[in-house]
């Protein structure tokens, strides 16, 4: 991983105003670029708005004009942009997808693999856990409910991920920070990854409401920066390759500098 600035956007997205969502994201991307960010992550479903039972109604093709506009923006700004959307696949299925747009024009995609209870029946689950090579380092993705599965983030780490982006569409909840702090620091610490989380905030235009929450954890599970206000915001922070190197290549006999996934005994985990 190279030393770089990560930007995490906490925004409100309406299912009824996808053009407005796009314009807002363009403005946030320009702000991130002006702040010197190399990577920008938007929340789950940010481009289309997030819905379960009406997901098919609001879903977009990956080759739709809004998706291609974000890809063009990444090239224009020299910014790596991860954007969430409800995706309508060519076979008609709907996925919760995070699209990664690289500055060189290449696009990659992750489809949420673990669906929440309200999503099952309306949305299809992805079946791959890819990692993505970028100029800044290797990036993995875990979308919202995915983060509750320790093996998912461990798998990404073992595949080389140094930064895991975790976009959320978590409902309005006054205990959002308390909930996240119960388990997300462990995902970062156990797997020696940076973990960047950002949640939708406000309403989706059709009755859904989201609680916000933006936080970056370092490979020791410590909070680098956070914002749990109920306002739209752009959070930026530096990512240190030295910290990753210390934890992943340090002396195995010294607990604080141990890369725990390397010591797995997978034959026992059956």
TrEMBL record:
Residues 4-241 form the CN hydrolase domain. It comes from the Bacteria. Coiled coil: none annotated. Keywords: Hydrolase. It holds the Pfam family CN_hydrolase. Transmembrane segments: none annotated. InterPro entries: Aliph_Amidase/BUP (IPR050345), C-N_Hydrolase (IPR003010), C-N_Hydrolase_sf (IPR036526). This is Nitrilase. The lineage of its organism: Bacteria, Bacillati, Bacillota, Clostridia, Eubacteriales.
